[in-house]
Amino acid sequence: KQKTAQELAEEAAEEVIVYGVEENGLITALGIAEYEEADLTAEITRGEFYALLCKANAYPETKTADNLFSDLEVGAEYEGWTKTLYKVGIITTTRDGKVNVTDPITGAEATSLVMRTLGYGPRAEALGGYPTGYLAVAASLGLMDEINSNSKTLTKGEAVNMAYAALDCDIMSQSMAVGGKAEYKVQTDCTLLQSALGIELIE
Fold first, then answer.
1. Which of these, 60, 192, 39, lies nearest to 120 by C-alpha position?
2. Cβ atoms of 186 and 137 closer than 8 Å
């Protein structure tokens, strides 16, 4: 019996695309994250993504006694990584001091954080800011190729793909020109793999 168009559409809707299967091996080997294949379709929380992002950038976990967040106690899971990103200016708190580390993170939110760590924040802001400017810059760098939706919550597999792509992106750096005006320049052949993790790819 030939299936109807509705039956085919329903079957397609039930298919689950698992992102990050191939990329997961490198991310695990580098100590950035460690997921079983079965975990890759699950949502990733803000706190979990913060930890992944810190490790990809070789940012150390901050272990200090100062309590910076109203909803996250010192020493709680992901508190140190969250504190690191907060102190380097990658993330902010809500007006009441919350960071909501247990909430899922969307593709657009995660993309903006990655762009800031790579130094592309000023370019993204010049193109319209959050979210359109950040998404446009990320797309031009190939970071959005394996992301299902910017508005939906990010899966662990998509986060792995994003981290994998970010590792091989050239970094944008800031310098001061004559007159004190900031200038931004892409550092060709200077990636996170090289600058943060000290790894050279042999082609």
1. 192
2. no
Structure tokens at 102: 């247990």
**191 sits in which H/E element:** strand 182-191
Q: Are 72 and 101 in contact (CB under 8 A)?
A: yes
Query: Residue 61 corresponds to which tokens in the numbers above?
Result: 């976990």
Plot region of 59 (φ>0 → left; ψ -120 to 50 → alpha; else → beta): beta
Closest CA to 114 of 62, 54, 154, 61: 54
- Give the pairing type, strands 170-176 and 182-191: antiparallel
pLDDT digits (tens, 9 = 90+) for 172-189: 988 766 666 778 888 888
Q: Find out whether 167 and 192 touch, Cβ atoms under 8 Å.
A: yes
Does residue 122 have a cis bond before it (omega within 30 degrees)? no
135-171 pLDDT, tens digit per residue, is 999 999 988 887 877 778 999 999 999 999 999 999 9
CA distances from 3 to 10, 11, 13 (A): 11, 10, 15
Burial zone of 13 (CB within 10 Å; 0-12 exposed, 13-18 middle, 19+ buried): exposed
**Cβ partners under 8 Å of residue 147, min gap 6:** 19, 107, 111, 154, 158, 161, 162
Instruction: Go through the chain and tell me how many residues it has.
Output: 203
Q: What is this structure's pTM?
A: 0.86
**In the numeric block, which tokens belong to residue 193?**
């793999």
